[in-house]
């Protein structure tokens, strides 16, 4: 953690609204989190949460139509890592609601094939906030880096 | 998406060779498994030893494959990395799938039924 001071250090990543570009965001997030000394499972889960957020922007805000921008701003300080995922597509009101995964694991027909992204983000991150700012939809994912006793 | 396949008795073992099963590859992945199920395969082992990353769309494709097998078939997972295993735990899918540490144990489990 010696390379991260009290002030925020940030990086901006932008991709086109294409699912075949999302892995590039994943690789960047994975690389940054690995340098913070987090364990492999936490690094994977943070990458997963950000990928889910970017997938949502592409699939739901832009309706899987290419040619639009999805921007991810990663900022880190000694206390937390934060991801701001922004798009200019349709506002996704479902992201404002808390969600859970409710199914019977023994009943095959009840198993969800989708709708798990927000649940994953809420499980992995300490804070999930969605709002509209200057006509842009922004999802903030924040994870504390403070060691828990 | 490249998926290796080998038949072990009545059990079909499939091994995705791509590192990621995600939203960009899940449709092709699901279609390939659907082809095997429609071809009559009812006992499938999914070996995840080569897979580094699965997102919820990739997981949804695996769930969809299990559902497509109906009441008669079963799909058992083997060799997931601890990181990938954490996705199954986060979504409680570890309570849905039988997940075993080795291909041998997974094949043996399906051969019993």
Written overview of the protein:
The complex is a heterodimer of chains A (149) and B (113). With 149 residues, chain A is α+β, with helices and mostly antiparallel strands. Chain A has one domain: Heat Shock Protein 90 (2-Layer Sandwich). Chain A is built from 3 helices and 5 strands. The two termini of chain A are 18 Å apart. By secondary structure, chain B is of the alpha/beta class. Chain B has a single domain (3-112), classed as 2-Layer Sandwich (Transcription Regulator spoIIAA). Chain B has a 5-stranded mixed sheet with strand order 1-2-4-6-7, covered by helices on one side. The model of chain B has no long low-confidence stretch (mean pLDDT 96). Classes of the chains: A alpha+beta (149), B alpha/beta (113). The interface between A and B is medium-sized, with 32 and 28 residues.
Q: Any idea of the CATH class of chain B?
A: Alpha Beta
Parts with pLDDT < 50 across at least 5 consecutive residues of chain A: none
CATH topology of chain B: Transcription Regulator spoIIAA
Distance between the terminal alpha carbons of chain B, to the nearest Å? 30 Å
Percent range of helical residues of chain A: 25-40%
Sketch the topology of chain B as an H/E string, one letter per element.
EEEHEEHEHEH
Q: Which outline of chain B best applies?
A: globular
Distance between the termini of chain A: 18 Å
How would you name the CATH homologous superfamily of chain A? Histidine kinase-like ATPase, C-terminal domain
User: Mean of the pLDDT scores of chain A?
Assistant: 92
| Major sheet: arrangement of strands of chain B | 1-2-4-6-7
Largest interface: A-B, 32 and 28 residues
Across the major sheet of chain A, the strand order is 1-2-3-5-4
Approximate shape of chain A: globular
Number of domains of chain B: 1
What's the total number of strands of chain B?
Answer: 7
Beta-strand proportion of chain A? 25-35%
Beta content of chain B: 15-25%
- Under the CATH scheme, the architecture of chain B is 2-Layer Sandwich
CATH class of chain A: Alpha Beta
